[in-house]
Amino acid sequence: MLNISLRVTPTFKKCGLVLILIISGLWWFSLLRRRSSEARGIFLIRPNITGTVNRKSNVTSCDYSDISTGALFDVSKRFPKDFILRHRPRDVLPGGMYAPSDCDPGERIAIIIPYRDRELHLKVILNYLHMFLQIQKRNYRIFVSEMVPGTKFNKALLMNVGFLTAEAAGNYDCYIFHDVDLLPVDVRNIYTCGDHPRHLISFSTKYVEEGHPTGWPYAWLIGGALAFRAEHFRSVNGYSNGIFGWGGEDDDMYYRLTSRGMLIERVHPTIGQYYVFVHKHDRGNPKNKFKKRILATSAERSKVDGLSSIADKYSIVAIETLTLYTRILVNCSEERILEQMRPYLYG
Ligand code: UDP
Ligand code: BGC
Ligand code: MN
Q: Where does this chain mainly localize (predicted)?
């Protein structure tokens, strides 16, 4: 009888152990990497509007096939900063409105920019976005929701006020909340709403340089440029009104959406590329020290903190129809708002 006996030498044992450790290490590493590029409720899409949209009887619907196959439209290469600064947008109606004259895009969109004291960024984004949205044959109006000087910045409340003002002004189909310091670089990233709230930004070389290989700081971050249909936005009660200072309003929105089981679509990173301005921290916008408490109460608080409770917490100081945008100047009572937030902040 053939007797095969395998003698396991100590060296062989050691090698086996090392091999097992390496394999399991690699398995954990791949799992963690997968985890960090995924977030609950977010899925990637490739926006691709082809053919026709909502044909009306007398005007031809816009044809988007040339845009959806278009080449990369990279601002940093094609349009240096002084070109954008000198460029004068054309065909814009007072208040920052535009619609193509030769076709009907179907959807009407409101761009809402929360703002204070970033004059250069505002100048650049207005010049740039008008150009970008006109290439995309969009029907749009740009609203800048500006906080009065000398108070603490409240980005989320500005976005709520921007939404209510835009809705009252034009009952738009789609509302896009947009930071003043982000420029989309690819025309194929069509500014439109989807069946779910749509996160338009998914990649910036700035984040790669800062050590995030995916080009995006963390998977569930939905800040910067987010598109909602009115019913999406209303169904989560809009943004919180109670987030003063920097950070957390976008994470709070993520929990508002996911706690209701809503999905979020994100533009694929090949198309969702943005140029991100590097800037210093603003005065009047200190880091929000309540972020942890705020994010621990997002789901519950969203029922009472938002569009439903905003009416007595702000005032519109002025609305101006300017050449390139509609300016909404907003004041709000931090005291009154924090009064309502107290149980959630200290609770
Ligand atoms: N913002 C502003 N003025 C301020 C603070 C913020 O206009 O004093 C607006 C602006 O639209 C900006 C956005 O709020 O892009 C987000 O703030 P910030 O740029 O500081 O946040 P980041 O995304 O760079 O961390
Ligand atoms: C903040 C977010 C911010 C993100 C990226 C997070 O820590 O909570 O509000 O958008 O960092 O800067
Ligand atoms: Mn910024």
A: membrane
Cα 222 to ligand 3 centre (Å)? 14
Domain annotation covers residue 11:
no
- Whole-angstrom distance, CA of residue 157 vs CA of residue 145: 9
Full 3-state SS string of 67-111:
HHCCCCCCHHHHCCHHHHHHCCCCCCECCCEECCCCCECCCEEEE
Q: How many C-beta atoms surround the C-beta of residue 279 within 10 A?
A: 11
Least confident of 52-56, 105-109, 256-260, 277-281: 52-56
- CB of 51 shorter than 6 A to ligand 2: no
Residue 1: predicted pLDDT: 39
Burial class (CB in 10 A: 0-12, 13-18, 19+), 272: buried
> Global pTM?
0.88
Domain range for 108: 41-48+66-345
Q: pLDDT tens digits, residue range 165-177?
A: 999 999 999 999 9
CATH number at 201 reads 3.90.550.10
Ligand 1 pocket: which of 145, 155, 249 to mutate (most atoms within 8 A of CB): 155
Q: What is the mean pLDDT of residues 114-122?
A: 97
